[in-house]
Structures are given as C-alpha cells and as structure tokens.
Design goal:
The complex is a heterodimer.
Chain A lengths: L11 H31 L2 H32 L2 H14 L2 H13 L1 H4 L5 H5 L2 H6 L5 H32 L5 H27 L11 H24 L5 H4 L2 H32 L5 H7 L4 H20 L2 H4 L2 H23 L13 H21 L12 H6 L4
Helix pairs in contact in A: 1-2, 1-17, 2-3, 2-4, 2-8, 2-9, 2-10, 2-16, 2-17, 3-17, 4-8, 8-9, 9-10, 10-12, 10-16, 12-14, 14-16
Chain B lengths: L4 E8 L2 H14 L4 E4 L5 H6 L7 H27 L12 H28 L22 E6 L7 H10 L4 E6 L1
Antiparallel strand pairs in B: 1-3, 1-4, 2-3
Helix pairs in contact in B: 3-4
Classes of the chains: A mainly alpha, B alpha+beta.
Chain lengths: ~400, ~180
C-alpha cells in the first residue's frame, strides 16, 4: 500500500512556495490597507467604514465557515472531511485576527448604525421599542459572546487534533466528535445573531427571519469555495499531489453545488415572502435594492451567483476536473463579494448605485492580510491528520 | 459448427477479485462485459467504464420539460384562461410561479430518472440467459460474477474461457441462450 510511504509534512519545496504566496499576500494586503488608511482621511471616515463593514463580513465567513465544516466532518465522517481538515483548522486559528479586525467596526459604530444615536432613536417609536436590544453595551456584549465561543471552538479542535497527531486517535477522537454537535448548534445561533447585529441593524427598522439562514448558507459556500481553490492549488505539490484524487474533489464540488442552491433558495424565499406580503414596513429594503441601478447588481447575482455556477456544477466531469472546479470556486468567491455589497451598501446609498475606490482597496487589504496570516498558520502542521481514524481508506478513496 | 451461446461467465469469491478480473478483461480488449454482484461496488463501475450512460441526459431533458411546462401551465391559467386581479399585481407575476416551476422540474426529473433507468436497463425483462447458469442465483447472496458476452468482437469460445481461467475464478461456465 502506498499509504505508508506518503510523508504528510510540508516539504521544503512547498514551504518555499507557500512563503512566496505569503509574501505576495502580505504585500498586497499592506498596500490595500495603506490606501484604505489614506482613504479614511481623503474620502472621509463614513466611506471607509461602509466599505469596511461588508469586506469584514467576508473575512468572518472565510475564517469561521471552515470551522463549521471542520465540526461537520467530525459529526458525519467521510473522506472529503479528512483532506480539508488541516486547512479548516488553520482557518479557525485565524479567528484572533478576525477579532482584531472587528475593532474598526467598534470604533465606527456611530458612523455605521443609526441606533446608537439618541436623537434618531427618540424620534422613532419603533427604534425606541428596539432599544433594549439595539444599544452599544449589549451589542458589544453579544459580539463578545460570539467571539468567545468561536475562539473556544477553534482552540478545542486544534488542541485535540494536535494531540491526535502526537498520540493516536483512540484517546482524543471522541472529545472532538462530542464537541462537534453542540459546536455546530452554537455556530448556527451565533451566525444568525451576528447577521442581525452587524448587518441587518444597518437598517434597524427592517426585519427578516430568513436573514440569519442566508448568512449560514453564505458562510458555508464561501468557505467551501475557498477550500476547493486551496486544495487545487496544493494538489500541484507533494504531499497533497499524492493524496487528492478526483473523488475527493468530486465530493467537495457536490457540497459547493448544494450550497449554491441553498443560497438561491434562501435568497429567493426571503424575496418571495416579502413580495407576496407587499407590506409597507418590509418592501422598502427590496425597493432600494431593485431600483436606481442596484437592479443590475441583483441581476448579476441571479445569473452569476446562481444560474451559471448551478448549470456548470451539474456536470459530473466538471466536478472532477481540478482546474475547472477551481475556476468556478474563484468565480463564486467574487460573487460572494458582490452579494455582500448588494446586501449592505444600498442601505447607505438609497438613491442610486454607487461604488467607491475604497470598495476595492479595503477588501483587497483585508483579504491580503488574512491570507498571509492563514498561510502562516497552515505551514505549522502536516497537511493531513497523520493519526486520524480511517486514514488509509481515505487515501485509497477512488484510486485506480 | 458450435451451438451459439450468450457468453462465458466466471465466478469469484471476493469483490476485489472481481474488480481485478474486470480490469484485466478490459485491458485484454474485451468490451462486451457485465458483472453481477450482491451489492453495489463503486470501483466496479470505474473498472467496467460504466459511468458514461445516457441517464443524466434523460433526467436533464425531463427536468427542463418539467420546468417549462410548470411555468406555462401557470401562465396559461392566470393570464389567459382565468385572469384574476390578486392584490393589484400584474397577471403575469413571475415570482409567484417559481415554486410550482421548481416543484415540477423536480417531479419530471425524478420520474425521468425512474423510467429512464427502467428503459435503459431493458426492464421489465422476463427472461435473461445468465439465469441458465445454475450457480448464478448466488449473485444475490455471496458470489461475484463476470460475464464476457459472445457479441464481443474478440470473443472466441476456447480462448476466452482460457483467459478467464487465468484470473483464478472459482468456476468458469458457459451461458446458454
């Protein structure tokens, strides 16, 4: 069996490559961050925070989403989960950086949200009614709870996984699978409340019970598209070139197809219910997003975030083609940016579509810095869990 | 001249032996092959190159027909046959049509999958020559069978039997028509 001969530690050649990627990501990140910092003074703090909010929600998705996949694979098992486990763990270890990146939102809370302003709240009975939930101390306390939970889960799964590498899986695997179920529950609730707190409360009078689910699906999709891209990139080098088969990629591609459909399903359900109800409290949110130029962004989302990837991903051969699947994954990641932009920015630009140069520099800066930190974390451990149960079966999965 | 037969069949005791035999037969150039097992074996479909079939296309066409007819059905009823003013909305209110369109896409696609599968497998089939092999009943219990059919261009009764013997089966038998 070849399984015994694969050394999962990162060989020198790949390490040099990864350091190269990291330097590039760091350079781009720093340039983006510097330009955004200049923009803070040139274009004004409001524009900076507006561009920052939606870009930051993407960073949350790409660092937290993999943690959800990590927990899911402890619950379900499966070869697909083992090949992405190390990448998921590394992404979860970037959560301290995600916490650090939350600080600008805390500082800009008055620029982003209407509800911290006493004069606005006092003038509106509905906002007054919501004030016991939507106020700065409770907002920060809730954010504290989310981050405490996420950081704990990240610490727990990384700690026991490191122990599994060192001592074998008998002693520790049950600890991880027992925490995975409650962890997924916590993830689901925390992402729901996070979506309401950080995103929906930009428009504090509007509400939708579907909103949290939309972010749960988007986090899963963002994470899976990122993981597929990373796996295809790593598959060119040892040791993953010896590990990854078409079957693994096929499984991951199926997840991506499923989540593209779930995203479309949630997005459309939310729209259909509000459209059918046609109530004056609810429809302004969509009227803003379907007028003044925003309708073209919406159309782009329908075609690019659903129709095109859905039609392409139906094909079995395509899901087994490393290059094509990675291109679709990258395309979906771009569409994730467009979707977040369309969800958040019209609340600030109610009259007509607008795009600032900061809407490019901020996400590029954040993603660059995040990627650099992610690659630092990824190189710390072997690329496969060396003592995981069923490892040999996974390596034989779909091999001819 | 010899009496024409359906093919020759080898019986194996393990799925691994069967998969190896199927691969060897493919490598030897045989194309008219079929395997019979008590449970699905993923690798076998790869070994026999059975993944390419017309079923996905049938399901796709079924789904598209279902979607289009679902949409047109609602359009015909709400716009042409029985127009009703509902909440002042236009008669052709497409968002309301999506759910039924989606459901009919799924319904037609799944029905095409079921009936397409039956049609492609040639079912129902009251008679099949493989059952002429007495031990073939074991294919639904604990034995694994590989059959090389006589319609294969490379088929030659003696040579094919000899070849199957080299794969170390439990038994090689002739399948009468």
């Amino acid at each position: 069996m070849m399984a015994h001969t694969v050394d999962f530690r990162i060989p020198a050649e790949l390490l040099t490559e990864m350091r190269g990627w990291r330097t590039k990501a760091l350079g781009i990140g720093v340039i983006g961050a510097l330009l955004s910092a200049i923009g803070f003074f040139v274009a004004g703090p409001n524009q900076f925070y507006r561009s920052y909010l939606w870009s930051y929600i993407f960073i949350v998705a790409i660092s937290l989403g993999p943690l959800a996949w990590l927990m899911l694979q402890y619950v379900t098992g499966g070869a697909w989960g083992l090949v992405i486990r190390r990448a998921c763990e590394a992404a979860a270890r970037t959560l301290p950086l995600t916490l650090l990146m939350f600080l600008p939102i805390v500082i800009g809370i008055n620029n982003l949200y209407p509800w911290p302003h006493a004069e606005i709240v006092n003038a509106d009975p509905l906002l007054k009614h919501k004030a016991p939930y939507l106020n700065v101390p409770f907002f920060l306390a809730r954010a504290g709870i989310y981050f405490a939970g996420w950081l704990f889960l990240s610490w727990w799964f990384n700690k026991w996984s490191a122990k599994e590498d060192a001592e074998g899986h008998d002693a520790v695997h049950s600890k991880m699978s027992r925490m995975a179920g409650p962890g997924i529950l916590f993830w689901g609730f925390s992402v729901t409340f996070m979506a309401i707190d950080w995103v929906l409360s930009v428009d504090p009078k509007w509400f939708s019970t579907m909103f949290g689910l939309l972010f749960i699906a988007s986090q899963g999709l963002t994470a899976m598209a990122f993981l597929i891209t990373l796996m295809v990139l790593l598959s060119k080098y040892r040791p993953m070139s010896e590990v990854l088969t078409h079957r693994h990629l096929h499984d991951l591609g199926k997840f991506m197809l499923a989540l593209v459909m779930v995203w479309a399903y949630f997005s459309f359900s939310q729209f259909l219910i509000i459209w059918a109800g046609n109530l004056p409290d609810e429809i302004p949110w969509y009227l803003t997003r379907l007028n003044g130029g925003w309708q073209f962004v919406a159309l782009l989302l329908v075609l690019g975030h659903f129709v095109l990837p859905f039609a392409l991903l139906l094909s079995r051969d395509l899901k087994r083609n490393f290059k094509l699947l990675a291109s679709i994954a990258v395309f979906i990641l771009v569409m994730r940016f467009v979707d977040l932009y369309w969800l958040i920015t019209p609340s600030f630009l109610k009259q007509s579509f607008g795009l600032s140069w900061m809407d490019f520099t901020v996400p590029i800066g954040l993603v660059g810095l995040w990627l650099a930190y992610f690659l630092t974390q990824l190189e710390k451990r072997p690329l496969m869990p060396v003592n995981a149960p069923h490892l040999e079966e996974v390596l034989e999965h779909g091999r001819d | 001249m010899k009496k024409s037969i359906y093919g020759v069949m080898a019986e194996f005791e393990t799925p691994t032996a069967l998969v190896n035999a199927a691969r060897a037969a493919r490598e030897k150039g045989y194309r008219k092959l079929d395997a019979y097992t008590p449970f699905p074996i993923e690798e076998l479909s790869d070994a026999l190159h059975l993944h390419k079939n017309r079923l996905p296309l049938i399901v796709l066409i079924g789904g598209i027909i279902g979607g289009i007819s679902g949409y047109l059905l609602q359009y015909y009823i709400s716009v042409i046959q029985y127009p009703l003013n509902i909440g002042g909305r236009p008669l052709h209110s497409w968002p309301a049509y999506i759910i039924i369109t989606f459901e009919l896409t799924i319904l037609f696609a799944s029905l095409s999958a079921v009936f397409g599968l039956l049609a492609l497998c040639g079912l129902p089939m009251p008679y099949h020559p493989t059952f002429n092999v007495p031990r073939f009943a074991l294919a639904s219990r604990n034995r694994f069978f590989l059959c090389i059919e006589s319609t294969d261009p490379l088929f030659d009764h003696d040579k094919t039997c000899e070849f199957l013997e080299t794969l170390e089966p439990r038994e090689v038998s002739e399948v009468a028509h």
